[in-house]
Amino acid sequence: MIIVMRSGASAGQVAHVVSRVEGMGYKVHLSQGEERTIIGVVGDDRPIDRSQFEALDGVEKTVPILRPFKLASRDFKAQDTVVSLDGVKVGGEAIVVMAGPCAVESRSQLLETAMAVKEAGATVLRGGAFKPRTSPYSFQGLGEPGLEILAEARALTGLPVVTEVMSPEQVPLVARFADVLQIGARNMQNYALLHAAGESGHPVLLKRGMMSTIEELLMSAEYILSHGNQRIMLCERGIRTFEKYTRNTTDINAIPVIKQMSHLPVVLDPSHGTGKWEYVAAVARAGVAAGCDGLLIEVHPRPDEAMSDGAQSLKPERFAALVAEVRKVAEAVGRH
Amino acid sequence: MIIVMRSGASAGQVAHVVSRVEGMGYKVHLSQGEERTIIGVVGDDRPIDRSQFEALDGVEKTVPILRPFKLASRDFKAQDTVVSLDGVKVGGEAIVVMAGPCAVESRSQLLETAMAVKEAGATVLRGGAFKPRTSPYSFQGLGEPGLEILAEARALTGLPVVTEVMSPEQVPLVARFADVLQIGARNMQNYALLHAAGESGHPVLLKRGMMSTIEELLMSAEYILSHGNQRIMLCERGIRTFEKYTRNTTDINAIPVIKQMSHLPVVLDPSHGTGKWEYVAAVARAGVAAGCDGLLIEVHPRPDEAMSDGAQSLKPERFAALVAEVRKVAEAVGRH
Amino acid sequence: MIIVMRSGASAGQVAHVVSRVEGMGYKVHLSQGEERTIIGVVGDDRPIDRSQFEALDGVEKTVPILRPFKLASRDFKAQDTVVSLDGVKVGGEAIVVMAGPCAVESRSQLLETAMAVKEAGATVLRGGAFKPRTSPYSFQGLGEPGLEILAEARALTGLPVVTEVMSPEQVPLVARFADVLQIGARNMQNYALLHAAGESGHPVLLKRGMMSTIEELLMSAEYILSHGNQRIMLCERGIRTFEKYTRNTTDINAIPVIKQMSHLPVVLDPSHGTGKWEYVAAVARAGVAAGCDGLLIEVHPRPDEAMSDGAQSLKPERFAALVAEVRKVAEAVGRH
Amino acid sequence: MIIVMRSGASAGQVAHVVSRVEGMGYKVHLSQGEERTIIGVVGDDRPIDRSQFEALDGVEKTVPILRPFKLASRDFKAQDTVVSLDGVKVGGEAIVVMAGPCAVESRSQLLETAMAVKEAGATVLRGGAFKPRTSPYSFQGLGEPGLEILAEARALTGLPVVTEVMSPEQVPLVARFADVLQIGARNMQNYALLHAAGESGHPVLLKRGMMSTIEELLMSAEYILSHGNQRIMLCERGIRTFEKYTRNTTDINAIPVIKQMSHLPVVLDPSHGTGKWEYVAAVARAGVAAGCDGLLIEVHPRPDEAMSDGAQSLKPERFAALVAEVRKVAEAVGRH
Fold first, then answer.
1. What is the model's pLDDT at position B207?
2. Does pTM top 0.90 for this prediction?
3. N or C: which end of chain C has fewer CB within 10 A?
4. CATH at residue B25
5. Are strands D96-100 and D294-298 parallel, antiparallel or unpaired?
6. What pLDDT is attached to residue A227?
7. Looking at this predicted complex, what is its ipTM?
8. A161 within 8 A of A153, measured Cβ to Cβ
9. Residues 277-306 of C with CB under 8 A from B
10. Total structural domains in chain C?
11. Could you tell me the end-to-end alpha-carbon distance of chain D, in angstroms, rounded to an integer?
């Protein structure tokens, strides 16, 4: 951390800041500039609350130097983490395609979709049993019966299953039925849930909050990692901006940025990233070209009957076309 | 809801949409424009997922007409809701000032602050025992011992206490010690927590998510209201924008907007809204001038020793000056 | 500026950066941390493009220490700048109310409005002759005849006139008719226009771009100041965010921030800041409570016939009520 | 347009709105819902200012139905527009790569870069002679001598040249030297400049404002089109969001959205879209995979000596590698 003093800060104010830093066990590096004095804190100062120093007289601002995450960082672990889901490897050479409906609506809907996405080339099945909805009047998911249907589809198709978990006390239940615990965008900073997912040791698909920075996403992963659970896949699913023609803005930059900063695999969700099925294939191709390790795509046999997210769900035949397109792009960038 | 057909949509596509709407029990109002056909859905269509219709062939977009919230709306309840906290009324003529430290750090720190803010004119005490922190390496709050200290401060000063609750299973515990359950910005769409808070019947201070629209805030209130709990105070605490000189951007517009649309009282948190103590008083005055019902302000006897949010915490004497300033503005707008 | 080296940067890379900095005539302050080496640049490094250094091998990032503006800063000029408009002082003790229609539509409309706002207490008249419109099919203003009408209103009422100028070659024309050159939000970074306004020596009302930071606003003022023209009023008019219930989000924080950082006066435009007349009075009161030096308010005798911005225009009687409310708040904060 | 009346609007208020609409020569389509009355305006109502109606008593809001652009729309012109630059076709099957330095700094720098990018596969040369800079203290470009150097490079390499024009009076000068007039992000809504560029008939590269919606970009194109100039290329160059690890957020969604809505070609600028050279290749590949028609890339022989944008400039050898990668992706999506 760098502490920048105000222009005109007194020698006493500088000395007081220095003694505070030293009193915490850090060394100080003092730099007298022409307009500002700067105090460098030497050592791993991540545990210090920078805000304290901003409250001291004569301090203009503080600037962090170290990134706040450790375990999630490439500095800590240089080689790529590969998460294995019953043999399906996320983070290796192959692009993993996870597909299925937004919500499990019925046994027949899910089984039909599961078989269709498998045939089209998906290797993981998605589907929500617990649904976070903006409105209390919207369909909230089937709950535990939905989980049982997912388990049946898993048995039928052999596809590992990813499904959302919404509260800490649901973790054991969901972990019993599913291969991957999905933590949704709205819960990215639900710390009680992150702790529970970390303790479970179960693979986690952690979605970026729609207005969370990449750094905050990595800090949420750090919560899970700090419990010894390294089986984490990060998911870019679009962020909230001022643009109105799409539901969210897919942050394509996030893919190379995360790959550079972290060893964890990155999955792109172009369905939420765009919010309209017409744009899903283009953005899925873009994600693979940019270097993502997997795709998460909403598929519904009859989108116009979907109880949620119909506008962004692909019909199975369109999904099959998307997989074929994505395959070509994957090969063009040396993946498959 | 209005369903806008694409230019060039066929008669068959229009007929199909109409039959789908009618099949759901709604009447249809058809309008043939020069460039677009528009299908109006007559009736309370809030429970329908609009996304379904956007997946139908020939549909360009759908437009909601009704606001999605009901119980939170002034249409539903015209007169202001007043939430009574052990005699302190939030939403009445008087501006309620809630103050205290970001986090309960020790018995002496809290009791000292509690007495100081009471003397300066605060009528509710704030302080966090459970703290949501971006980093797993930061101070996470004292937990239950923190709640006990709050209860002691309450007994000592007579001030009702507001403190954060972070997960559904903490609700009974926190409700036993505190007068108001605070739901933090990161948890505004933690639906399991909203349900639990709703069922508790306890007063709730619901903070707007830093990434949430006013409509989403009202929808989260709707979750609590749908359990029959009307004792809700909404809190504007700044939103995330591109501006970097302040921690958040206080959405001052939200105050008149919420007062117009909803009957629930509105509290402003200028400490988080700005992130710097130098700006807190100016924005507190602005909030009262704009019509808020209360203020939530961070006060710490020694901000430079605060374990969190030191930069935005006021010293007790500065807080006392703020209360005096706010009082004059309150009188200028006919409050006290 | 601070240059942060990557973890693992070689001694040669550090030496190369140091020699580059020294080659530019600056001194270097080297700090070897545990995880990172930091190179401090001593001296006024504002003219250097930091981006160069980020292109050097081994550099992780650069961090500016000095604020990039100089002439606009309180460090440069401690006392408040007061801009005098034919006797009306902006930046002094009195709050200046500038009011009038969005656009000059006709002689009768403008003269009627001018007399009404004067009677209600406005001391400056606003009105657009050149209108920047998103659509080429919208009313673009009356042009020079509009300026003549403004001059007539000025003669009739004695109110100084503020009106927008949209391109460098219009500056002499507009300066001949108006007391203040308004530079609109969309042109805040139209540097050719800023240069022309600077050279004119005429008072300038510089509106913040709807997605510009406060720092960028001050840098645009710096362009004008660098021509020796200090007669600048900064105008906060709302920024673009994700919130949809209002046209823009009034950045109320910007008022105390600018007053702290700069000596220039600040005017608030609650009409654009909210986009709806119902919210204008509340936000106008808030602005005065927060410390602004003036208000810019759209008034139209018949908003439902306005050729632009009808939804955010006040009728004269509502404007008169607003002025009365604002007066009380001004007195509550020691202004008048 | 749809006009939504407030719940409780009186019959008289409805009748008044209806008569106003009819008085403007439009037909009305009235729909009496259970909670709201809706008034549909039949006909091309793009020229009406919707804001007028929002000012009428009893009106809650208005909703546009028609998109505000016409000439830029696929409804108006179904087939793709191809802009020919001295034989180089933008918008056809081939992906056009435009490359060169941010700014022309010297004759030798530009000629060296021009030959390098040509050899690597670029077919258009970029380079700025007039530079819009946030700070008046930064390098502002060489001006006319820079244009002369560009013309020399053009003669030497045969590459058409794109360069920025910053004000209406510069248009004839720049058009004399350059093949394409670039309108920069900060000037996207500089209407005087759009008019001048439209009148010139010269090819235009119109960059999206960092704060502008896709709709606003298309409306700015509409200004140019309304002068009969169809030789427009739209450029996505990243938008401003809350994310801090990159300079801007590349809106990859914008590519399929614009291709669907408009016939104009789309160019992606991954240099500004990311702001860091390490991420440029990944995002360039993504753009091509998503369907863009061209790329605009900053290349500098010695980025660490660049007078601007060094951090996002590629060295020639890295640029050559990028072109090879992009070529493979282009073939994977059926382009070349």
1. 98
2. yes
3. C
4. 3.30.70.1140
5. parallel
6. 96
7. 0.95
8. yes
9. 278-279, 282-283, 285-291
10. 2
11. 43
